[in-house]
Give the backbone structure.
Amino acid sequence: MFDIDTFIADCRQAVDKDPTHKSAAEVVRRALADPSGVMKALGEPKEPGITPLYQSCDLTIINLAWKPLTTIPPHNHEMWAVIGIYGGREDNIFWRRVKDHPDGLIEAAGAKALSTGDVCPMGPEIIHSVTNPIPRLTAALHVYGGDLFEAERSEWEPEGLLEHQLDIDAVRARFSNEAV
């Protein structure tokens, strides 16, 4: 049975043992082997939001509920990430920088749909955009190899795909329960 305190301790131990995403990904895979157990322990989300479960300089764990039919523009994390879906679906487009472009232009490089029970590790260089393509909330555990809320990160504007500094307050506002 999933226990949030045990999950946090296991993630903490994984990062202490291995600073890459590999050990943390195994912890998330074990947890997501029983997505209904995660849902039972955390509760089915009733509204969208970003709920920090743990935050330190080398590890952030959040419980995230995505708004239905919402897209988050391309962004980076500047650290590794492991995403585990315990309810719903998210579609990721992975992007790469256009070599030597002065404005940080990006181009699509791949995609992956994640459904309930799926886990997706991402290296620190990954740029992705995310869509919740279904008409209900999607629930996910996100584990990051750093302090996600304090890191200087980039976001790419959706139309021209040009880089600018990510505003974490604007990201939080996208996850508010308005316009659900």
